[in-house]
Design brief:
heterodimer, A: two-stranded antiparallel ribbon, B: 2 strands
Amino acid sequence: MHIGLLETGSGYWNALIWVITAVIIGIGVLWLRNKGQENYKKNTDQTKPFLSGNPEVSKEDSHVGASHIYWGFTEALKKYYEPLVKLHTGNINDYSGWIVLMMAIIFIIVGVS
Amino acid sequence: MSSILMHAPALVIALPLLAAFVTPILGRFNRKTISWLASFTLGLTLLLTIFIAKQVLTNGPIVYVFGGTEIGLTLPFGYSMPIRIIFQIDAMGIFMGLITAVVAFLAAIYSISYMEQHTGLDKYYTLLLLLATSMFGMELTGDIFNFFVFFEIASISSVALVAFRSTISGEPAEAGLKYMVVSSISALMVLFAIGLFYGQYDALNIATIASVMQFTQLDKIALILLVTVLSMKAGSVPMHMWTPDAYSEAPAAITMVLVAASQASLYALFRITFSLYNVTLNTITVGWIIIILGVLSMFIGVTMAIIQSDIKRLMAYHAISQTGYMLLGVGVGLAVLTNPAALESYGIKAMEGGIFHIMNHAMYKGLLFLTAGSLFYRTGTRDLNRMGGLAHNMAYTATFFIIGAAAIAGIPPFNGFASKLIIYESVYQFNPLLSIIAMLVSILTLASFVKVFHSAFLGPQLEHYKSVQEVPKSMVLAMATLACIIVFFGLFPELIVKHIVHPAVMALIDQARYTATILGGI
């Protein structure tokens, strides 16, 4: 058995080789980054974000809250989410109902098979 | 010493049970020592579990007969079936026992600081120890009625722990009530199924029932009841709705143990289908039922998680989603159980992926719930909308969160990747669509945890969290231990798969060996 070599059924996976590769690539990226723009000056307008000419909002106000993240994703899947969220009523009667319903479905499937 | 270790299977139950009853007495004299007593006891139990695991994985299954003249004498002269309570510990049982031992021990360590300011600590630690005892019992017993007793103890102690924190709005009590109702339904159904077995076969020992199983109409009804309620207790969609309520309201360390308790029910589902019924049932039908429950859990769990803004509810939905992977992997193994070529080609690998994922999930989901607990400990909120910039002051917690999040999203080289990769590749050979859904769910999982990381840890320091500090050492220690396990399992997955997971899978598949361990004939 080779150290780190996992048989996955169709192939192999070696985490150690992945780590070594990631480290080599990381070093390469850092080296490339250090060769960056020579005319870069810290603490000048160069370091500020450019928001189409609009003034930059304060850092505290620029933090995007959790409810706003993936707004587009949930909006696009509204038809999927609306009934799904409605099913989660928080009502214990419904919880019990789902158990009974699933039991009935499995009963029919196993019964006829 | 060796004579004491002979009784290790009994001690694994007896030690935490004894400590559970000593805790309230000790609490009357010295409140602070009870957390250390619980940690010490669960640490000792962990060592005993490791000792049993070594025995089982080296020498084969262990049987322990309670009250018998000899520990290993399952069938005294003149008896045709075992009548005493017997612990039957094979590689699958001890695999689950190891998970329980690690999780319960780290929960106690984490709780030392996390629960320090709370009142009623004697009750808290008593319930934690009882919960650990019952989980060990569920996983080690070879007697189905004994399983029911431990199943009930686990439910009662879990309900009390979910409702442990009291708030003005009463959410923990409400979550506890809901959990109590679904637990009562499941316990009744399990008891009814046991009655059906006992009525037909006059036996309660799982191996004995398995050896005479005829798969009558009554056995079919028992199977339906057990599959439904055990998958419900494992948090399977669409019977998952109690999970976000219970997981989010329980104290963080308890949520970690609740995840392992749900996995104990999942283990029972696998034990029933493989060791009790095995090929007597229609493996393709029941296998596909488990697979469909798995796919529903994976997809609905993750899509519901993405829209949550309560960090623990979000993680609870992910726990449902990850349970889907386990159901998928083991379901594929069950579906091809009667097809030796398919079982050999990918069925065993799919089961290895599913079973390995149980252990991985317990570790990274445990870590994630502990990081959520750390955030709650310092900020007093679970609402992600009110958090931000916490990585500035809680660097350790942020690092542990990254490790846990990367593991659950299946990013190499962490442990979640290893088990998911085995599931993807083996399930692809069974049905490519199932594998593609599993990969899609991983992408959505990553998206969801990117959202949590951004909301809680990134961004500028918020004014009201400027004075926030890193959590106390005992909490950091528990999280660091889990993080180390995750990294180790990720870097050397073959060690775990070869020495722990593969024997566990073979113990599940080989029903003949399971029955012969009790009834003889090996």
